[in-house]
Amino acid sequence: MTGTGGTAFVLGGGGVLGAAEVGMLQALAEAGIRPDLVVGTSVGAINGALVAADPTPGAVDRLRGVWEELASRRVFAGSVIGRVGTLVRTRTHLHPREPLRELLEDALPVGTFAELAVPFQCVAASIERAAEHWFADGPLLDAVLASCAVPGLLPAVEVDGEHYLDGGLVHSIPVGRAVALGADTVYVLHVGRIDRPLRPPTRPWEVATVAFEIARRHRFAADLATLPEGVTVHVLPAGDPAPPGAANLRYRDFSGVSARIDRAHVAARDHLARIGVSRDGGA
């Protein structure tokens, strides 16, 4: 798609909060807005790959099903003793990769980037090069798993002799990538944190969260501040009534997934109607 213009969906990272992106995708589908390019990070790579495989409205129902499977299969299951045992055995992570791999094998209808209906790229962090790496061709599953390899929770993914961790470490909301690939209309699907002010941490577990938020928001703000002339970016609302707070620490809690999808759907639908976006993606 490089240099040709078109509409891009940019799906950010955020763990279980990524369910909000499904609601946003539903609103976009109902408005008749179809992507020419999909770019994803971490959980946004899962959502993005499924949409790129099938950009029709029916994909939203399948995505809802995947999120229900994430809950029912308990991808991050295990007792405290079991998780500690995995950590002691591996010395690097709390959960095995296999449950998520099996779920994605069942969910993804294609095996390679070339088979996708819409061009798709996802990002991961290379350990050896300490740099972002964009997957755009070859096997799809390992690329998505690499983008989702949350440090400490899941093991690094090896691809062609190089090891990768979660893409959110290097590019959590990759608007700049979509623009570099030629998109002139960008819809940003995020997990509901970027539009809320940060406060100094008051508890030990908030320190890392605030530090990560500063890093991710700084790059996103820099991307927006350096947009080329003629590029339009729509940041869709997630519809959260209150800041997610420590929700990312409760990464195994999928109980609010359906409600989060529905809130994001309503908020994004109303937003699209308010800004008067047409079915060709323009205002």
Automatic annotation (TrEMBL):
Active-site residues, record numbering mapped to chain: S42 (nucleophile), D166 (proton acceptor)
The keyword DNA repair belongs to this UniProt entry's keyword annotation: no
GO-annotated biological processes: lipid catabolic process
Top-level lineage group: Bacteria
Motif stretch (DGA/G): 166-168
Keyword Secreted assigned: no
A GO term, aspect molecular function: hydrolase activity
Domain PNPLA, chain residue ranges per copy: 9-179
Name assigned to this protein: NTE family protein
Organism lineage string: Bacteria, Bacillati, Actinomycetota, Actinomycetes, Geodermatophilales
